[in-house]
């Protein structure tokens, strides 16, 4: 009996819905014992989880990737080596699933229900214990969110959402297991909300913006200690669309471009990550990158042979007629990809 045949009926149904070809499934499900991360990520797909986005989060949870981002973006990590940063990441961080693997960020629950009726679900959430300039240990709570935006904006500024998430990282600490009790505000830990935005408008190419609390004296000058109010930062990172990969210089944005560009084969990604960024490609990460590349190709092709375009045209037309709305609103409600939208518009104009 093959690995595919051993897959449960429920798993087959989910995987079929995600449009994963048998050849890709064989890569993903072979040697389950030694590839538990990828296997578990496949098992835990649900109706609201996109396969490609899911694999991107898995790769982002790799400690080597996180450490590179932290070193560049966080002032607390500026003078630390990548190895020191990796060692600072706690063993029990939180992500959107529970997976036991040495190279991955491992966690349980990422739901923040500290505010009644306002649950927040983080993509990746973990703590790092970093040395301060005074030689003390500072526990820094960090939230890293990776989203693949099909449109340039989800209908609101992402930075606004980032500020809300960073605020929740602060408020959730009151009386939490990993927070503080009563009025012991000295134990309040800093929160980072770091957003990776690979899809954006041209003017945001190669941009990193930081938003933080700043002290301003309106009358007589007197200054509080920076560590008393420097408790939250939001960092927005926009990788450029193109880089000269053979240039000896390197940056965290180029690294992110290499990871998530759809224009590069898996083998080339792995070569650049190893040669330019000294990222050790373990067997698990190697398979995840290859699997993600396969998925991205299938997303771009949009499964023409499966009749998806025909189905998209029919659904758009029916929704326009039944809801009495225009074509753009109908396609947005159906969450059609941009390249499919163009085809649907052309076909419906033909009458």
Side by side, the strands of the main sheet go 1-4-5-6-8-7
Mean pLDDT: 72
Multimer state: single chain
Number of strands: 8
* Biggest beta sheet attributes: 6 strands, mixed
Question: What share of residues are in beta strands?
Answer: 5-15%
Q: Strand pairing plus helix content: what structural class?
A: alpha/beta
Indicate the percent of residues in helices: 40-55%
Overall 3D form: globular
Number of helices: 15
- Weakly predicted, low-confidence segments: 1-7, 10-49, 97-109
Tally of domains: 2
For the CA atoms, what is the radius of gyration?
A: 22 Å
Report how far apart the termini are.
Answer: 50 Å
What is the element string, with H for helices and E for strands? HHHHHHHEEEEEHEEHEHHHHHH
What would your notes on this structure say?
By secondary structure, the chain is of the alpha/beta class. The chain folds into two domains: 23-301, no CATH class; 305-349, no CATH class. It is built from 15 helices and eight strands. It has helices spanning 3-6, 9-17, 22-29, 36-43, 51-60, 63-73, 82-88, 158-171, 226-229, 252-260, 266-277, 283-301, 308-323, 327-333, 338-349; strands spanning 94-95, 111-112, 120-121, 124-131, 137-146, 190-196, 207-212, 232-238. The protein has a six-stranded mixed β-sheet. Helix 4 (36-43) runs antiparallel to helix 5 (51-60) and helix 13 (308-323) packs across helix 15. The termini are far apart.
């Amino acid at each position: 009996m093959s690995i595919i045949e051993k897959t449960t009926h429920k798993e087959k149904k989910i995987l079929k819905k995600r449009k994963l070809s048998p050849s890709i499934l064989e890569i993903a499900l072979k040697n389950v014992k030694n590839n538990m991360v990828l296997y578990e990520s496949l098992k835990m797909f649900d109706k609201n989880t996109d396969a490609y986005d899911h694999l991107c989060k898995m790769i982002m949870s790799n400690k080597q990737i996180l450490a590179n981002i932290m070193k560049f973006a966080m002032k607390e990590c500026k003078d630390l080596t990548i190895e020191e940063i990796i060692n600072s990441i706690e063993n029990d961080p939180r992500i959107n699933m529970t997976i036991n693997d040495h190279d991955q960020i491992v966690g349980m629950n990422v739901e923040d229900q500290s505010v009644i009726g306002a649950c927040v679900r983080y993509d990746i959430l973990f703590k790092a214990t970093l040395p301060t300039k005074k030689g003390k240990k500072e526990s820094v709570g960090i939230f890293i969110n990776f989203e693949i935006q099909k449109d340039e904006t989800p209908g609101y500024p992402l930075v606004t959402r980032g500020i809300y998430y960073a605020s929740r990282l602060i408020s959730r600490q009151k009386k939490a297991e990993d927070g503080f009790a009563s009025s012991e505000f000295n134990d309040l830990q800093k929160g980072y909300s770091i957003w990776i935005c690979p899809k954006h408008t041209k003017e945001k190419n190669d941009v990193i913006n930081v938003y933080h609390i700043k002290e301003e004296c309106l009358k007589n000058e007197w200054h509080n200690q920076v560590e008393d109010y420097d408790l939250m930062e939001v960092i927005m990172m926009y990788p450029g669309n193109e880089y000269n990969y053979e240039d000896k210089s390197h940056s965290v944005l180029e690294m992110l471009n290499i990871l998530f560009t759809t224009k590069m084969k898996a083998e080339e990604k792995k070569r650049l990550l190893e040669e330019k960024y000294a990222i050790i490609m373990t067997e698990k990460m190697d398979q995840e990158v290859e699997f993600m590349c396969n998925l991205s190709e299938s997303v771009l092709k949009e499964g023409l042979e499966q009749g998806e375009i025909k189905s998209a045209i029919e659904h758009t037309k029916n929704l326009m007629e039944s809801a009495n709305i225009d074509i753009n609103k109908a396609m947005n409600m159906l969450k059609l990809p941009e390249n499919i939208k163009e085809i649907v518009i052309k076909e419906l104009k033909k009458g």
